[in-house]
Amino acid sequence: MPRNSTLIAALRLQVEGGESEAIALAAESPGAELILDDRKARRIAAEMSLPIVGTVGLLLRGKRDGLLQAITPVLNSLSAAGFHIAPALRLEALRRAGE
Protein backbone atom coordinates (compact mmCIF):
# COMPACT_ATOMS: atom_id res chain seq x y z
CA MET A 1 0.00 0.00 0.00
CA PRO A 2 1.49 3.36 -0.99
CA ARG A 3 2.11 5.82 1.84
CA ASN A 4 1.80 9.10 -0.07
CA SER A 5 -1.93 9.81 0.20
CA THR A 6 -1.47 13.30 -1.26
CA LEU A 7 0.04 11.86 -4.44
CA ILE A 8 -2.70 9.23 -4.66
CA ALA A 9 -5.39 11.92 -4.31
CA ALA A 10 -3.77 14.04 -7.02
CA LEU A 11 -3.42 11.07 -9.35
CA ARG A 12 -7.06 10.06 -8.80
CA LEU A 13 -8.08 13.35 -10.38
CA GLN A 14 -6.55 12.06 -13.62
CA VAL A 15 -6.72 8.24 -13.56
CA GLU A 16 -8.68 5.51 -11.81
CA GLY A 17 -7.91 4.25 -8.30
CA GLY A 18 -5.91 1.18 -9.28
CA GLU A 19 -3.65 3.08 -11.62
CA SER A 20 -3.19 5.95 -9.15
CA GLU A 21 -2.14 3.59 -6.35
CA ALA A 22 0.15 1.60 -8.64
CA ILE A 23 1.90 4.78 -9.80
CA ALA A 24 2.23 6.08 -6.23
CA LEU A 25 3.62 2.75 -5.02
CA ALA A 26 6.13 2.62 -7.87
CA ALA A 27 7.23 6.16 -7.04
CA GLU A 28 8.00 4.93 -3.50
CA SER A 29 9.73 1.74 -4.66
CA PRO A 30 13.13 2.24 -6.33
CA GLY A 31 13.67 -0.25 -9.12
CA ALA A 32 9.98 -1.09 -9.48
CA GLU A 33 8.50 -1.43 -12.95
CA LEU A 34 4.86 -0.55 -13.53
CA ILE A 35 2.56 -2.78 -15.52
CA LEU A 36 0.18 -0.31 -17.16
CA ASP A 37 -1.94 -0.41 -20.29
CA ASP A 38 -4.04 2.71 -19.76
CA ARG A 39 -2.69 5.43 -22.06
CA LYS A 40 -3.22 8.30 -19.63
CA ALA A 41 -1.68 6.40 -16.71
CA ARG A 42 1.32 5.48 -18.88
CA ARG A 43 1.81 9.14 -19.81
CA ILE A 44 1.70 10.23 -16.17
CA ALA A 45 4.13 7.50 -15.10
CA ALA A 46 6.49 8.44 -17.94
CA GLU A 47 6.37 12.08 -16.87
CA MET A 48 7.45 10.87 -13.42
CA SER A 49 10.30 8.88 -15.04
CA LEU A 50 8.90 5.57 -13.80
CA PRO A 51 9.70 2.44 -15.83
CA ILE A 52 6.63 1.02 -17.57
CA VAL A 53 5.73 -2.18 -19.36
CA GLY A 54 2.37 -3.17 -20.79
CA THR A 55 0.62 -6.49 -21.18
CA VAL A 56 1.95 -6.99 -24.71
CA GLY A 57 5.47 -6.20 -23.51
CA LEU A 58 5.13 -8.83 -20.78
CA LEU A 59 4.00 -11.38 -23.37
CA LEU A 60 7.04 -10.61 -25.51
CA ARG A 61 9.31 -11.06 -22.49
CA GLY A 62 7.60 -14.34 -21.71
CA LYS A 63 8.29 -15.60 -25.21
CA ARG A 64 11.86 -14.33 -25.18
CA ASP A 65 12.48 -16.03 -21.82
CA GLY A 66 10.97 -19.32 -22.98
CA LEU A 67 7.88 -19.09 -20.77
CA LEU A 68 5.55 -18.91 -23.78
CA GLN A 69 5.93 -20.78 -27.03
CA ALA A 70 3.74 -18.29 -28.87
CA ILE A 71 1.96 -15.04 -28.08
CA THR A 72 -0.69 -15.35 -30.81
CA PRO A 73 -3.04 -17.59 -28.78
CA VAL A 74 -2.71 -15.31 -25.74
CA LEU A 75 -3.42 -12.20 -27.81
CA ASN A 76 -6.45 -13.96 -29.31
CA SER A 77 -7.74 -14.89 -25.86
CA LEU A 78 -7.24 -11.36 -24.57
CA SER A 79 -9.13 -9.93 -27.54
CA ALA A 80 -11.96 -12.45 -27.10
CA ALA A 81 -12.22 -11.39 -23.45
CA GLY A 82 -12.64 -7.73 -24.49
CA PHE A 83 -9.08 -6.51 -23.95
CA HIS A 84 -8.43 -3.91 -26.65
CA ILE A 85 -5.14 -4.20 -28.50
CA ALA A 86 -4.55 -1.67 -31.25
CA PRO A 87 -4.06 -3.42 -34.59
CA ALA A 88 -0.69 -1.74 -35.16
CA LEU A 89 0.54 -2.84 -31.72
CA ARG A 90 -0.63 -6.39 -32.37
CA LEU A 91 1.18 -6.52 -35.72
CA GLU A 92 4.38 -5.11 -34.21
CA ALA A 93 4.23 -7.57 -31.31
CA LEU A 94 3.77 -10.50 -33.68
CA ARG A 95 6.65 -9.27 -35.81
CA ARG A 96 8.91 -8.99 -32.76
CA ALA A 97 7.82 -12.42 -31.59
CA GLY A 98 8.58 -13.89 -35.00
CA GLU A 99 5.00 -15.03 -35.48
Quick overview of this protein structure:
The relative contact order is 0.11. The model has no long low-confidence stretch (mean pLDDT 94).
Task: Write structural notes for this entry.
The chain is mainly alpha-helical and 99 residues long. It has two domains: 5-53, no CATH class; 55-97, no CATH class. Helices cover 59% and strands 4% of the residues. Helix 1 (5-12) packs antiparallel against helix 2 and helix 4 packs parallel to helix 6 (87-97). The longest helix is centred in the N-terminal third of the chain and has 11 residues, at 17-27. The N and C termini lie far apart (39 Å).
Keywords:
99 residues; mainly alpha; 2 domains; 2 strands; 59% helix; elongated
Mind sketching the topology for me?
Blueprint: H1 5-12, H2 17-27, E1 34-35, H3 39-47, E2 52-53, H4 55-64, H5 72-80, H6 87-97
Parallel strand pairs: 1-2
Helix pairs in contact: 1-2, 4-6
Helix content: 55-70%
Percent of residues in beta strands: under 5%
Structural class: mainly alpha
Ends distance: 39 Å
- Which residues sit in consecutive blocks of at least 5 with pLDDT less than 50? none
The number of strands is 2
SS field, number of helical segments: 6
The whole-angstrom Rg is 15 Å
Silhouette = elongated
Mean pLDDT: 94
Q: How are the strands ordered across the major sheet?
A: 1-2
Total count of domains: 2
Chain oligomer state: single chain
H/E element order: HHEHEHHH
- What does the largest sheet look like? 2 strands, parallel
